[in-house]
Amino acid sequence: MAGFGWRVGSKLQRWGRSCLRSFSSAVIPSHLENVGFIGLGNMGSHMARNLVMAGYKVTVHDINENSMKKFADDGIPTKQSPLEISETSDVVITMLPSSSHVLDVYNGSNGLLRGGGPLRPWLYIDSSTVDPQTSRNISTTISRCHLKEKRGYAEKPMILDAPVSGGVPAAEAGKLTFMVGGLEETYIAAKPLLLSMGKKTIYCGGAGNGSAAKICNNMAMAISMLGVSEAFALGQNLGIKASTLTDIFNCSSARCWSSDTYNPVPGVMEGVPSSRNYNGGFTSKLMAKDLDLAMASATGVGFKCPMGSEALETYRKLCEDGSELKDFSCAFRHCYAGKDEE
Ligand code: NAD
């Protein structure tokens, strides 16, 4: 704890609790008021808008000018670089595709930490899905930085890795789940902000543990999606309709998210990517990336994940075959019922 420079641990805890009280009475704690948001893609655009709606003073940045224009048109301030975001924010949230983008935004020539000088933001939250080691490395870098202006509750800048689950619909509805790694007191202090974008936050332990939880979750999700797809394909080959098999799964031991919420077989459920030619949703490319992170992390600790490794091969192949921008549930059609149609 000392390394992070909290003056008094319990002081921040008290402050965090008072933040929660303030939040419940719809008053935004002043320490969280000015939020810089970087990465206005499928997820980040909704998350940033939910913060605006909750009353935070949000400033945004993305390398994509079109994404920024949509915010500028709505009167939300935009900045041309992460450095400029850093200069006006108390808290900076990043929601970027992968580790290399996050490292670029933090350490790049116009990055959040440019020059290693004193920083205005006291809190950084990375919600991108990255490998735990990247989160830990950035956390170490931040712990060596200083604040431009010391605050009553923190003497040094803090960082949380806070990846999400729930996908684009949950991002839009403000119902994400955040898996958070970092100092627990920082997590408590950040909770009101996270709950403006989500419905649940889970503290996972020290720096990088949020990222570790996320890649484990997504590895399990990929494996279960492939398992369910294979079982539906076998059922169809044995003469059982996927809708019938779904009814059975969903009241039997095979029930899972891939069968009851995100069914991969076209025509079985409405409103899911399989019902719209696997468009929208969570792309196969991102799933391949997350499996890659999981396998690299497993190798890093000398652990073998044979099913995860098999799932990675399947998703790599699927991307090579042109389905990288299709939702990851397209594995059903790609692997068992022919290639995706455009
Ligand atoms: P996305 O590709 O739609 O958005 C990423 C945004 O980051 C883009 O607007 C891009 O222009 C911007 N960007 C890239 N490099 C940048 C840079 N150097 N500086 C500023 N902006 C930059 O991705 P997404 O679907 O919003 O996902 C974001 C993260 O959330 C990923 O790590 C993903 O794995 C994770 N995630 C996605 C989903 C989902 O369903 N899409 C669900 C959970 C988690």
From TrEMBL:
GO terms for biological process: L-valine catabolic process. GO terms for cellular component: mitochondrion. Pathway: Amino-acid degradation; L-valine degradation. The active site is at K214. Residues 34-205 form the 6-phosphogluconate dehydrogenase NADP-binding domain. Keywords: Branched-chain amino acid catabolism, Mitochondrion, NAD, Oxidoreductase, Transit peptide. It is found in: Mitochondrion. It catalyses: 3-hydroxy-2-methylpropanoate + NAD(+) = 2-methyl-3-oxopropanoate + NADH + H(+). Its EC number is 1.1.1.31. Residues 208-333 form the 3-hydroxyisobutyrate dehydrogenase-like NAD-binding domain. PANTHER family: 3-HYDROXYISOBUTYRATE DEHYDROGENASE, MITOCHONDRIAL, 3-HYDROXYISOBUTYRATE DEHYDROGENASE-RELATED. This is 3-hydroxyisobutyrate dehydrogenase. It comes from Digitaria exilis.
